UniProtKB/TrEMBL annotation:
<keyword id="KW-0805">Transcription regulation</keyword>
<dbReference type="GO" id="GO:0006355">
    <property type="term" value="P:regulation of DNA-templated transcription"/>
</dbReference>
<feature type="modified residue" description="4-aspartylphosphate">
    <location>
        <position position="51"/>
    </location>
</feature>
<feature type="domain" description="Response regulatory">
    <location>
        <begin position="2"/>
        <end position="127"/>
    </location>
</feature>
<dbReference type="InterPro" id="IPR036388">
    <property type="entry name" value="WH-like_DNA-bd_sf"/>
</dbReference>
<dbReference type="InterPro" id="IPR001789">
    <property type="entry name" value="Sig_transdc_resp-reg_receiver"/>
</dbReference>
<dbReference type="InterPro" id="IPR011006">
    <property type="entry name" value="CheY-like_superfamily"/>
</dbReference>
<dbReference type="GO" id="GO:0032993">
    <property type="term" value="C:protein-DNA complex"/>
</dbReference>
<protein>
    <submittedName>
        <fullName>Response regulator transcription factor</fullName>
    </submittedName>
</protein>
<keyword id="KW-0963">Cytoplasm</keyword>
<keyword id="KW-0902">Two-component regulatory system</keyword>
<dbReference type="Pfam" id="PF00072">
    <property type="entry name" value="Response_reg"/>
</dbReference>
<feature type="DNA-binding region" description="OmpR/PhoB-type">
    <location>
        <begin position="135"/>
        <end position="229"/>
    </location>
</feature>
<keyword id="KW-0597">Phosphoprotein</keyword>
<keyword id="KW-0804">Transcription</keyword>
<dbReference type="Pfam" id="PF00486">
    <property type="entry name" value="Trans_reg_C"/>
</dbReference>
<dbReference type="GO" id="GO:0000156">
    <property type="term" value="F:phosphorelay response regulator activity"/>
</dbReference>
Length: 233
C-alpha cells in the first residue's frame, strides 16, 4: 500500500513510518499542508494519514481541497484523486471534532495516542471496503491470503514470501483481471526517497512464480502483469 503521512511531529512520524514499512507499506512523509498537496498532485496514494494541527494550517483544509478536486473522467486520470481514502490521526479527541472530521469527508478518525496495530486493522478495513469485500481472508483458486497475519497458504500449505513479494501478490490479487505495468507496481511498492533497482519487480515476480506456479501470475508482453479473474463461485 502506498501511504502519504502528513504529520509535523518528527518523533511520531519516524516511529509510525518505520512500523508501516515493516508491514510492507511504502510511506511518504510530509510535515506541512503545502508539501502534502505537492505530493498528492505528483503521485497517486492508496490512503492519506492526516494530522490536523500543522504548521501552515489545519489539516481539514487539505481534506476539503482533496474532496473538491475534479474527479477522473473517461480515460483521463487526474491527480489528486478526490476519492483517496483519508484517516485523520490527531490529538483532538472530542466528539464534535470526530463528527466534523468525518462530515468533511474523512473515512476514519483515530485519536492520539493510538495503537499501531489498531491503525493496521483500520487500514485493512479500508482496503476491504474499497474492494467490496467482507471476508478478511482473500481466496483465489488454491490460495488463501491473510492480510492481518501476512500469511499465505497454497493448498493448505504455508508459503514463505519476502515482504516485497507478498505486497506484489496482494496488489495483483486486489486488481484481478487488470494488467498492471511495472511502473504501476513500483509506485505501490516504493516511496519517493526509495532506491529502485531496474529489474526489482521482475525478480519478485520470478520468485512468486517459483513458489506458486507459472499459471497464477501472467504476463501481457510489453504491458505488464496480471492475475486472471477468479471464476470460483
Amino acid at each position: 500500500m502506498r501511504i502519504l503521512m502528513v504529520e509535523d511531529d518528527a518523533g511520531i512520524a519516524e516511529g509510525l513510518k518505520a512500523n508501516l514499512q515493516q508491514r510492507g507499506h511504502a510511506v511518504d512523509w510530509c510535515s506541512t499542508l503545502a508539501e502534502a498537496w505537492r505530493a498528492l498532485t505528483a503521485e497517486g496514494f492508496d490512503v492519506v494519514l492526516l494530522d490536523l494541527g500543522l504548521p501552515d494550517g489545519d489539516g481539514s483544509r487539505l481534506l476539503q481541497q482533496l474532496r473538491n478536486a475534479p474527479a477522473p473522467t473517461g480515460l483521463r486520470k487526474t491527480l489528486p484523486d478526490p476519492a483517496t481514502p483519508v484517516i485523520i490521526l490527531t490529538a483532538r479527541d472530542g466528539v464534535h471534532d470526530r463528527i466534523e472530521g468525518l462530515d468533511l469527508g474523512a473515512d476514519d478518525y483515530l485519536s492520539k495516542p493510538f495503537d499501531a496495530e489498531e491503525l493496521q486493522a483500520r487500514l485493512r478495513a479500508l482496503v476491504r471496503r474499497a474492494a467490496g469485500r467482507a471476508n478478511p481472508l482473500i481466496h483465489y483458486r488454491d490460495l488463501v491470503l491473510d492480510p492481518a497475519q501476512h500469511q499465505l497458504r497454497l493448498r493448505d500449505e504455508a508459503v514463505e514470501l519476502s515482504p516485497r513479494a507478498y505486497t506484489i501478490l496482494l496488489i495483483l490479487l486486489q486488481a484481478q483481471g487488470r494488467v498492471l505495468s511495472r511502473q504501476q507496481l513500483e509506485e505501490k511498492l516504493y516511496s519517493f526517497d526509495a532506491s529502485v533497482e531496474s529489474n526489482a519487480v521482475e525478480v519478485h515476480i520470478h520468485h512468486l512464480r517459483k513458489k506458486l506456479g507459472a499459471d497464477y501470475i501472467l504476463t501481457m508482453r510489453g504491458v505488464g502483469y496480471f492475475m486472471p479473474q477468479d471464476q470460483a463461485p
